[in-house]
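new request in #modeling-help
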Amino acid sequence: MAEIMVWEAILRAHDEELANDPMVIAMGEDIGVVGGTYKATLGLHDKYGEERIIDTPISENGFTGLGIGASFLGVRPIIEIMSVNFSWLAMDQMFNTAAKVRYMSGGQLQAPIVVRSPGGTAHQLGSQHSARMEKVFMGIAGLRVVTPSNPRQAYGLLKSAVRCNDPVFINEHELMYNMKGTVPEEEYFHPLEGSEVAREGRDITLFGYNISVHWCLQAAELLSKHHGIEAEVVDLYALSPLDRAGIRNSVSKTHRAVIVEEAEPAVGVGAEVMAVINEECFFELDAAPVRVSALNVPIPYNHALEKTALPDANDVVEAVRKIFGV
Amino acid sequence: MKDADKKRLLREMLFARRFEERCYEAYVERNIGGFLHLYPGEEACAHGVLEAARVGHDYVITSYRDHVHAIKSGSDPRAVMAELFSKETGVSKGRGGSMHIFDVKHRFMGGYALVGGPFPLAAGIAKAIRLQGGDEICICFLGDAANNQGTFHESLNMAALWNLPVLYVCENNLYGIGTRIDRSTAVVDQYKRVSAYNIPSAKENGQDVELVHKAAVKAIKHVRSGKGPYFLELMTYRYRGHSMSDSNAYRAKTEERMWSKRDPVIMLRDRLIDAGKLTLKEFKDMDTEILDEIEDEVIRFAAESPEPHIADVEKYVLAENDPWVRGGAE
């Protein structure tokens, strides 16, 4: 097992899939000659040429639509949208075309595209570069949404997404590209559905995804050390479809749940997981589920305000303490 | 064009006219639901262009006014009507409807209901053709009002930049829903707008199928020879409102009368009669035969076909049993 960074894991997945199938292409702003804002396509332009590694104009809806059209004929585009904030502009093609074309054509066409985009807030990027949009994508029928929390998932999810016949949106994180982790030396395909238990526990389940998995893990250590509470951390790497069985299994074991999301609370992952808990295992609960979310504000530029607007591990600890009354 | 081809085209256009008129009746009879956008008046555009294409080989994509383009691309009119009747035997298995006719075996890549949506899809199909090394082209039919969407500019830029084999056909019927072109668009001549992307273009009378065909032969030759995209503007007029829910009250009767004198079916009919190649009786017999065919075969098939199974409502949302969802083939 090699220890590599998230960007290296994504680059490796690109390289292997491009080598495997001549119909795999990569496209996006600055991904070719420059090698990608986060280096996720570094060196591929020289290796595979400009027909397959395409520097696009800054036309998110246009180049996403172009990738979708190409996918109708069996091309498998990996589309990088430089920031998830810009993907608002491509939602028309992603939602109106890619997510619906199999259905409205009665199964004749499919749009096997992968759209990768860093979501989440970084440091002082301001309101229009700090969006967290997974809640929007996961509400659309016909679209798969996955979100890696470590290099192994980043590598394996992209590999499976390229080969899957459905459109897949991969929600990455600006702050996580340099995060290190182990990735298998041999080729590895991560499931696009399901969840992973990132830490076993018996007292409460902390549901996280992407960056919030790490807040949950930090919180679990603090809770164990200071309060003797053993929290289970469930990594919801698949946001659509959600792993209903995984959610039920963990809550049925711990009987308590906190959902931790980086986004504003309304219509979000927390709300959805709570609904699943209600539907799947309400009578297993010993306490009402709680969500830890961002404040309902556009993300401020000022560092102190920004920090206040976002949740962290301490907020998770506080939420759990409140549940246990400690 | 040979006389036999002209007569065949006349029959095809008359069939398209009668098919669409029968759709109107079926809508009123409530056999067709949703939105219905009809093509009468514009027949020479689809027929002239696709007559010059390799139908079934070249890819065709268009907007929600799509029935006639599909039929000229090779779709069985019975399956198109069955789609409008929301039946399992419809081209899109009753899941699409009037605005989403798909018939991929004939390379008819669909009707799309977002104005301007197909512009980048067509460029993408052209990109795939290039990657796969074929000699097909993609032909994208859209209305004039679609050119005010961002996708128009984004797609033309990329198509020109990457020299993609795509022909954009602008069916300029002078209205974007109910707003006349000069009230919505700063540059009324659409063929001029593409000069910003160095794309060659032409403007043609979209009511004369022979002129459309001639212009399309030139345009398609350009695109297929690898010289990149081409833009063809066809001046035309729709006789009905934008859709069935459109009162059509915004157009002057004098304007409608003027365009009715340029009817594409009548124009070709009279030309053939004047040349001694057709008699009025032959035309009337042809019309009767078409009306009977539509009633006895097309409508009957649609009416008698089964509805989709209710249990299949979640079919076609995602791929079935895709092994990569589980992370591998085993």
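bot summary: The longest helix of chain B spans residues 3-28.
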